[in-house]
Amino acid sequence: MKTVRVRCNSRCVKCARYARMHQRLDWLGRVEDSTASPLPRRSSRMGEVLVEDLRDGSLHAGAAGMRLLFRQVPAYWPLLSLFALPGFRRRVDADTAGVGGHDSAA
After folding, report:
1. Residues 35-77: pLDDT tens digits?
2. How far from 43 is each of 22, 76, 96, 98, 104, CA to CA, in Å?
3. Hey, which end of the chain has fewer CB within 10 Å, N or C?
4. In the chain, what are the domain boundaries?
5. Are 59 and 38 in contact (CB under 8 A)?
């Protein structure tokens, strides 16, 4: 059963590489990839990654989104403790924000 949807820009090479990696590591089938924008009248920026929780419909960006994704994929579980480090969270926020930083509406 899919529990999260990872949304990214369809033209972003880095996003496509991450999507392939998540698919390979997700042997429980919990992660779904999508290039459709979850926000009306706004497309995803290059490099921007949003994670949607399919159980409650909430949308998460940056470190919060990646932490949600990491909790769904057992191969990532050893890395979950890194989210307690402020430097790691800042780096994940920067890497998943896309061009121009990330939107507070997301």
Report:
1. 766 554 455 677 788 889 999 989 898 899 999 999 999 999 9
2. 22, 28, 15, 12, 15
3. N
4. 4-96
5. yes
